[in-house]
Amino acid sequence: MSESPSRGLIVVNTEDIPGKTIVRSLGVVTGSTVRAKHLGKDLMAGFKNVIGGELKAYTELLGESRDEALQRMLEEAIGRGANAVVNIRFATSAITQGAAELLAYGTAVIVE
Fold first, then answer.
1. Fewer CB atoms near the end CB (10 Å): N or C, the chain?
2. At residue 23, what are phi and psi to the nearest 5 degrees?
3. Is the pLDDT of residue 109 over 60?
4. Domains, the chain, ranges and CATH?
5. Torsion angle (degrees, nearest 10) of CA 17, 19, 110, 22
6. Which of 79, 75, 105, 84 lies closest to 23, judged by CA?
7. Which phi and psi (to 5°) does residue 4 adopt?
8. Are the CB atoms for 101 and 93 separated by under 8 Å?
């Protein structure tokens, strides 16, 4: 269980929160972002594919995308009056060649 930087919202990837009781479900909340690869980073990634190693530029891009999608989802939960989001998941999908969507989703709830 972790406290979100968004107004103390409790955020978990489980269906319940130990020590808390879900008193109301407010429905599914989502947040997404679509990001495109950077040509310069693509060239460096191509070299890494040949010699091996972590594609750090893509790792950073994915981390930024995940954070942005999560923040948007939490803002929607706050807008609905939630004090927690349970069962959080992430999904990705290709939009076009070189661009992908990262989606965060979960169930906004009120817990006591």
1. C
2. -100, -15
3. yes
4. 2-36+67-111 (3.30.110.70)
5. 80
6. 84
7. -80, 150
8. yes
